[in-house]
Amino acid sequence: MSAQQNQETKGWIVYPIGSKPRWPLAVLLGVQQYLTMFGATVLIPFIVGGAMQLPPDQLALMISTIFFTSGICTLIQQSPLGNRLPVIQGGTFSFLGPTFAIIGMVAAKELSGPEPLWQIQIQEVAGPL
Hints:
Elements: H1 3-11, H2 23-52, H3 56-78, H4 96-108, H5 117-126
Helix pairs in contact: 2-3, 2-4, 4-5
């Protein structure tokens, strides 16, 4: 095997299993992961809260709740119970379709009563979860 083929064979895997990047690169990659997850984590409550027409204080509570649960899930993953992969657990966009269906069904019922419509919608969405 020629030297060029040997270099191509060795060089295509940047980090083999069990290796770690140097600290400056690890910090840079961690900041990149944080910024990516921050936008996605905040966007889910904004989308769902906008569909429910949540008041600003309740939207803030929903955002802080998703950050809290994401942090707890990430810590559990880093514990002996988890697989210890260096990732951040966050929300998923796959449940937005069923969530919007439930919100729409509750809004179509045109319920009236002492509690606001968004509270009934939150209760109906939380039931299947």
